[in-house]
Amino acid sequence: MIKEIMLPSLGEGIDEVEVSDVLVKPNDSLKIDDIIIVLESDKATMEIPATESGKIIEVFVKAGENISEGQILLTMDVADLAESEVKNDINESPEEIKPEADPQVVDNSNDMSDISTHEQSITPTKPIQSIERSSIQKPLASPSVRKFARELGCEIARVQGTGIKNRITREDVQKYIKSILVGNTPGGTIHEPLPDFSIWGNIEKTPLNKIRRLTGEYLTRSWNTIPHVTQFDKTDITDVNDLIKQLKNTSIQQDTKLTLLPFVIKAIVQSLMEFPDFNSSLDPASNELILKKYYNIGIAVETASGLVVPVIKNADKKNIKELNLELSDLSNRARNRKIQPDELKGSTFTITSLGGIGGTYFSPIVNLPEVAILGISKYNIEPVFDGKKFIARTMLPYSLSYDHRVIDGAAAARFTRFIASLLSDISLIKGLDII
Fold first, then answer.
1. How far is CA 148 from the centre of its chain?
2. CATH 3.30.559.10 domain extents, the chain
3. Hey, CA dihedral for 108, 114, 119, 121, is it positive or negative?
4. What pLDDT is recorded for position 41?
5. Span 63-79, mean pLDDT?
6. pLDDT tens digit string along 381-435?
7. Backbone region of residue 2 per phi and psi (left: phi > 0; alpha: psi in -120 to 50; beta: other values)
8. How open is the CA angle 224-170-53, to the nearest 5 degrees?
9. CATH number belonging to the domain at 212-428, selected among 1.10.10.10, 3.40.1190.20, 3.40.50.2000, 3.30.559.10
10. Rounded to an integer, what distance in angstroms lies between the CA atom of residue 47 and that of residue 270?
């Protein structure tokens, strides 16, 4: 029997999609689940599988072409085998199917040794990428549906089944993929299967530790949720640097070495007071901006296990010496994994620094549910023209990443310029008591 194979509905909001690849040609034999074409939108890619078995007569689409719902993809001579395969697939009993283990579902209920910084500080809510893992049941689905999901790079445990006893159908998988294509699944990701790298040489597989795994989940959620923009700037910190050198042999440095960071914290706090939107969180459910009247500054700390972000609470009420001592204490305990969970929560703005390593500028990812983050790079001596001649000055490059839903470019530029004015003339910083 000759049958026309049409492009199925791709979901509301998708009128046309581009064909990125055609994987079949006339006279090819197709089986159910064999991929016919690959589609690509500005959100993701999607593979369209065969729903019939048979021999292809003619292909009507080509790579680079835009196609829409209901358009003929190909004609094929449908074999009798197709009907029996579809019938068998429909008649499979969910009770007789042994669910595959989901490698993502891990019981960590007794593992308290790896407390992730981001698990505690980035957001008090549960990440989209790790949906209530303890409540995820082994999914019921037929082998062909599982195969279909694997070929699409879809984690079948994330698909809501609509069949008998919540059995997952092919349509459920397609619906889930379509929701990602039109951007209706925040944080949803289609994972392309990796090639077998071992065919080219020796490899070694090392599982991510819990901190890195959860950090990745939170950062992915932040990146997929927030429209990021980064503003780059730099400021003259010659006077601050000279002051730090002058204080080298004083009582302030008896307990721990004084660094630039306490001065940056003071400048940030004053900037947040001047620009309160930067000390807020956006509630997407109500479209309300939650302005915070307290100033808790998260400080990203590199550890052997990954990134950790302890929080300096009420930074506006502490002087330079207090900030310096607390920074040293929190950083040391974070590296030695002695930090307490409450010390990783409640930040309103985060600072991350690569100054001790090097580099010029970088684009940090906003620490949800905050709306901005400051990245500090390595300062350098540069020639600066004072109107008459070039003089050597210590210049600090820094980067501000922000949520464009809350902050526009002009506000971000004013914010970074305000920081620059404070750090270039520390007499402007309020409450800058050294001790």
1. 27
2. 212-428
3. positive
4. 59
5. 86
6. 999 998 899 999 999 999 999 999 999 999 999 999 999 999 999 999 987 877 6
7. beta
8. 125
9. 3.30.559.10
10. 52
Q: What share of the chain is helix, strand, coil (3-state, %, to 5)?
A: 35, 25, 45
Structure tokens at 71: 């358009």
Helices (H) and strands (E) in the chain, counts: 9, 19
Which CATH fold topology does 1-100+128-196 show? OB fold (Dihydrolipoamide Acetyltransferase, E2P) (2.40.50)
Q: Which of 92, 280, 308, 102 is nearest to 214 (CA)?
A: 308
Contact by Cβ (8 Å): 133, 360: no
Task: Give CA 225 to chain center in angstroms.
Answer: 8
CA 254 vs CA 248, 251, 327, 386: distances in Å: 9, 5, 15, 37
Q: Is 289 exposed, middle or buried (0-12, 13-18, 19+ CB in 10 A)?
A: middle
Residues belonging to the active site: 404
Mean pLDDT of the chain: 80
Report DSSP letters for 169-232, one per residue. Answer: -HHHHHHHHHHHHTT-STT----PPPP-GGGTS-----PPPHHHHHHHHHHHHHHHHS-EEEEE
Taking the C-alpha atoms of residue 270 and residue 265, their distance in angstroms, rounded to an integer, is 9
- Rounded Cα distance, 211 and 295, in Å: 26
Q: Where in the chain is the domain with CATH 2.40.50.100?
A: 1-100+128-196
DSSP one-letter string for 89-114 = HHH--GGGPPPPP-TT----TT--S-
In order, the DSSP letters of 222-242 are HHHHS-EEEEEEEEE-HHHHH
As a whole number of angstroms, the distance between CA 61 and CA 329 comes to 64
Beta strands 17-22; 29-30: pairing state: unpaired
**Of 220, 313, 266, 280, nearest in space to 411 by CA:** 280
* Cβ atoms 216, 208 nearer than 8 A: yes
Smallest Cα–Cα separation from 308: which of 116, 93, 95, 80? 116
